[in-house]
Protein: Phosphodiesterase
Amino acid sequence: MDGELSNGSEGRLQASAKEVSFGPIRLLQDPIQALLVFAREDSQSDGFWWACERAAYRCAIAHSAEAALNLVLASHPDLVVVDGRSSQHFSAEAVCRSIRATKDSEHTVLVVVTRKIPSDQEEEESILPLLTAGFTRRFVEDHRVSVCYNELLQLEHGELRASFKLRACNALLAALQRCHDAVEITSEDHVIQYVNPAFERATGFSSDELVGRTAPERALGSDARAHGQPALARAHAHGSRNQRRERGSEPDEQQQQPAPAPPPPPPPPPPEEPLADDDDDDGDFDGGADDGQRRQRQRQRQQQQEEEEEDGDLITDQHSKEWKGTLYTKCKSGKTIKQIATVIPVIGQGGWTRHFVSVRCPCSDNATQGEGIHREERGRAGSVHTGGSVHHRRNSSMARIHSMTIEAPITKVINIINAAQESSPVSVAEALDRVLEILRTTELYSPQLGSRDDDPHASDLVGGLMTDGLRRLSGNDFILSKNVHHAQSPLRVPTAPATGDAAGPPPRVVEALGFEDRWDFDIFEAENVTHKRPLVYLGLKVFARFGVCDFLGCSEATLRSWLSLIEANYHSSNSYHNSTHAADVLHATAYFLRKERVKACLDQCDEVAALIAATVHDVDHPGRTNSFLCNAGSELAVLYNDTAVLESHHAALAFQLSTRDDKGNIFRNMERSDFRTLRQAIIDMVLATEMTKHFEHVNKFVNSINKPGGGADDAASVNGGGGEGESMGPGCSPESRLLIKRMLIKCADISNPCRPLPLCVEWAGRISEEYFAQTDEEKRKGLPVVMPVFDRSSCSIPKSQISFIDYFISDMFDAWDAFADLPDLMEHLGQNYRYWKGMDEQQLKTLRPPPPQ
Structure:
């Protein structure tokens, strides 16, 4: 039976925690959990089962790939043994890839059981495909319990023990991530391999900017030598030089001596060179002295540095080879900070130093020394051995660059903050440092999405909706059929009149659309009476009310043909992303466009663009998420480089369909410049529906439109400008109108939780069914499961709706309501949230409560 557990209580070994040493760490290892994946039980599965009993492992067995994946997600076993002797029931490699694609499976040990090698076969097949798929080890079938038990013992003291220690490294990484000292780890060749957040905060550089680059690229260059950097370089070089001698790649007369060679002495003072007269002012920091005095000071500084090294300011421990001393580090802002540093060489492969760990803490006098350090750097720049005139020319060039008037706005902001810091108290200066750190990040409007282990529904929604793809599996084919990725042939809509002279809508359709101007309009009734094609009829009525045909210069017949063509390319087989959803978004868009503050900001071009964007925003949607398409290696994902795959396809296909035939080309009579303006607005709004940019769009709207003292009523203060251009709405700048249009279609696209309760519940059921179908297909095809909680056998729909409202809906509609004044929507949102909360408190997982008995 799938998932049957055995505790092995009668085994020869006691099922108790074992103590494992990992350097200075003492760990307790719980009894090992094993999972056997065999399509049917036979002598081999029995052999491993009884071996697990003897070894006191907790064991479970699964008979299908899907059952195995469910057990992995539920219990995270340490060891998985997969039957690879036959591919009749499942592919062992596909099972392995599915497991490797799950969360926390990186350190799981996977063993594949293969058939015996025939005696008449001279060459054994390569096991490389199995290792590439993710297996750790291969076991040639042998059903004897003693052989299986010995295999488990080897695994327990080898791969499983190593895996357990690697998992423990997560604790060390967590400590590094949160410690206050700046930590940098480099390779033997000084290529940066890791920096912790404290290092990022201290220098202003992000990890992405540093990792993979050599340390000197980030250092002070010539200035580093003036502040003790050579001693650090010598410590590194000493370790590298000893290693090269041990490898025999560098001659060394002392190679046969057992005692380690002492660190090399400090380099001799650089040769004295005459300095050009034009360097007098820049080459020394008291630039009025003559050459003889300047050279004398240079020798004094060199002597002082050597004395500091001898007296212990720069210390090299002969036994540990640690280097301790003071470093001056140049930050991204150009500021130089003083740090107390310890550099520790770490022995690695081959017994040689493979890493250098640098631990740094700031000096207490950084706040008062900053300006003096800058002055001293300027004074020493001309007296460096590489030549004062060269540095003078370089500094002059840099001065010219910094004096240029072409500055990015963010550079001006940073310069203003830097200037403010100089005259601010220490507490304010530290706060401004934090501001500068935030400003240097790449995503200013997107929140840092940490782990949400307490809410797996929110975690899965974020992972599934806000990422374009999790990870690409090697060897994936393009598994989706072409009609998922390319526009289908136009479908005939039976209920839509073909020409403008045809009869109008049927009476039932007219009745269903009678209240389409109200928020509680029942789109599902319209879907029913139009035979699942509500977009044409609703579109004709909405577009007529906004004068779209007059603006575009097209006939109603052309508009009808275009709507029929667009609706035909929505997939009626999708439970959620079909033409009913498009009609629902169109209805919400039209409702928002009638609000006074929205009307005051947008002109007719904006309104037409919003209505068209709502109509086409999900055309040819395959009923799968962007992450699914990227993981599956679909043609669309390849075409759009795994970035905004579906949204780019919707926008591109909409214009391809529109211009394919003059009969349905609503844009054919527009002026070229007007068409380009309208096209750009439509594309921008369709792309705004991509969920990876959700928080960016919402935060920009809040900070620009809903900021205190701002808003549409005071448009001259919004984003820096009043609106008097020809294309301006009556009171909003172009930037404000852009943010408003993005927010409008975003709210229209995911407004289901703000609909009346019956409509909200129906939409929740439809989107859940689409996610269930995606999860089923991912498991069936061995793809990473993007949203594991959306498993139809275990998902709680109330929990998923609560998480969606908490994480995506509440803040966005609070902001939109503050701008557009939507009390009805907010009332429905509160009622629906309370409904889902009540269902969850009753531990119900369904859409609706059971009928009363």
Observations:
- Residues 85 and 114 are 5 Å apart (CA to CA).
- The radius of gyration is 34 Å.
- The chain has a mean pLDDT of 77.
- Residues 179-252+260-267+299-381 form a domain with the Beta-Lactamase fold (CATH 3.30.450.20).
